[in-house]
Amino acid sequence: MPIVVNGQTIETDEEGYLANRTEWNEDIAKEMARVDNCELSQNHWEVINFLREYYEEYQIAPAVRVLTKAIGKKLGPDKGNSKYLYELFPYGPAKQACKYAGLPKPTGCV
Known about the structure:
- The chain is mainly alpha-helical.
- The chain has helices spanning 26-35, 42-58, 64-75, 82-88, 93-100, and strands at 3-5, 8-10.
- The protein has two domains: 3-35, Dissimilatory Siroheme-sulfite Reductase, Chain: A, domain 1 (2-Layer Sandwich), CATH 3.30.1420; 42-100, Arc Repressor Mutant, subunit A (Orthogonal Bundle), CATH 1.10.10.370.
């Protein structure tokens, strides 16, 4: 199911994850969020950028428990909790944030 961003067709899988993660850019993230009726705030970008850095380092998208712990370490306990992350990403912090970050679906997510 492709999406069109700035006149360019971007291939995604049946769940909306990028087929080719090297095509990712912020406009693609914004379009994916728009499709989900989500407006990306600075707080969203913090999590998205964190996930991209995590993936670069470990070559894996973290499951939600790992994500919550790691964000708590980096951004503080007020942001490293599932209530905060679910407010930002109601469809599941790991799944939805990884999709916007142009990463593969996290392992352990159903």
